Amino acid sequence: MTVESATSPSETGTGEETRRDFLFLATGTMAVVGTGFALWPFIANMNPSADVISFSTTEIDLAPIEPGQRITVRWRGRPVFVARRTPEEIKRARADDDSPGLLDPEPDAQRVQRPEWLIMVGVCTHLGCIPLGQKSGDPRGEYEGWFCPCHGSLYDASGAGAPWSGAAQPRRAALYLPG
Predict the structure, then answer these.
(1) Tens digits of per-residue pLDDT, 64-84?
(2) Where are the domains of the chain?
(3) Side by side, which strands form the sheet with 153-156?
């Protein structure tokens, strides 16, 4: 009686490929490809939609903005205040840096990249409302910046929070500086 080895020729090191080896490779390859095709819709679904991508960037033409003019644009569904400041406004903002009552110790020179432009997200840090001060007739408070009528927050000419008599102190407005 002869006993045959249970090992295949490829396991014995002869280098011969069998049909079983081919089937193992083909089945493994199809399993990997099939898993990729099955997972693709789930992975693709994690990408942001087109409307979200359109909100992520906003280009602003700054050329038509005159000195002293303030405009509001939308970025990610939030208002962004763009102000082209006059030399007097820059001087006033830098003078406010020394005011002991301002809540934000960061000076105006660190808040802006170019002194004539102030660009910041226009959302009040207390309740999330939109402060007044973008239009020429809006109240701007004693610091000539922005005024939030919901609870009386004041912001200076560079967006730093000023003291007020409400229940909570407003903090510095969030900045969005162009690159």
Answers:
(1) 989 988 888 888 778 888 889
(2) 14-47, 53-162
(3) 144-148, 153-156, 161-162
